[in-house]
Amino acid sequence: ASTLGLVDKAGAAGATLDELVSSTGSSTSALAQLLAHLVTIGVFELDPDTRRYRPTDLSQQLTDNALLLDMKNAGGRAELAFVDLLDTIATGKPSYPKRYGRTFWEDLDSDPRLRSSFDAQMNWRFRTQATQIAERFDWSRYPNIFDVGGGDGTLLTAILQRHSTVRGTVLDLPPTSEAAGDRFAEAGLTDRASALGGSFFDPIPAGADVYILSDILHDWDDDHAAVILAETARAAGGNTVVIIESIRGISASTGVDLFMLMCFGSRERSMDELTDMAGQVGLGLHTSTTVADGRTALEFRRTR
Questions:
Q1: Are 148 and 171 in contact (CB under 8 A)?
Q2: 155 touches 126 (CB < 8 A)
Q3: How far apart are CA 69 and CA 77, in angstroms?
Q4: Catalytic hit among 37, 218, 224, 286
Q5: Spacing of C-alpha 178 from chain mean position
Q6: 122 confidence band (pLDDT: 50, 70, 90)
Q7: How far is Cα 16 from Cα 10, in angstroms, rounded to an integer?
Q8: What ranges make up the beta strands (E) of 83-175?
Q9: pTM score, whole prediction
Q10: How many CA atoms lie within 13 Å of 249's alpha carbon, on the beta-carbon side?
Q11: What pLDDT was estimated at residue 127?
Q12: Radius of gyration (Cα) for the chain, nearest Å?
């Protein structure tokens, strides 16, 4: 129903079966059966006089969560790979490549629409958290911030808007990095913010006062996460690395944890696991701070 956009196509005035068949290109009999079920569970109501299907308050969930439910978007497409979760549990390997023949990231690279929907999903997820992270952590200590894998600049924008003396750079793959540049321009931050196209598996520019890895490491298995962290630590030199994640045993959702396993062969990590991983590249935990709903900032500094 979300993928077909039934709520938006029906509108507040509702729509008849024929109108919805025409606008969605669906089978009349099959769509009638789907609509009957949606009426039964309270997502739509059917006016007995006009035979129009009208969205209910419950239907708002289809539009509010469209980024995760629409099977043409990155989020909805990924959820479908849960069908092969049994194979993941048996082998420990992600089921996304089994279903689609390539990794999640390769899929995004192959389809600009998937890439843009993934960026939109990240913005949607961070619509509240970005402001909280900007407010609840003292970023003013770091005049020059480097957001590694920072998407289209949602978090860095919030930080710079909150802390007027700070400058920053986002690193991400094109075209996401280009979208970050657009966001900075719209926010009037081009004098303090820049976007750099590139991968965190390639050399990261040195010279920033702090390097952020926000919701990055949980997207990767241990081997890849270790490479990302090692390269970030190298770029930071004697300066600070801040890892922002949902922490297993503190705030991490078990549902999201299973998603990470299914999609990436990864997991939400505990504070000890993240600290041990950082220790392998010469970083020691300095502070941990709850910075948003379900997010903790771990501040690491060079120990050797």
A1: yes
A2: yes
A3: 8
A4: 218
A5: 17
A6: confident
A7: 8
A8: 144-148, 167-172
A9: 0.89
A10: 6
A11: 80
A12: 22
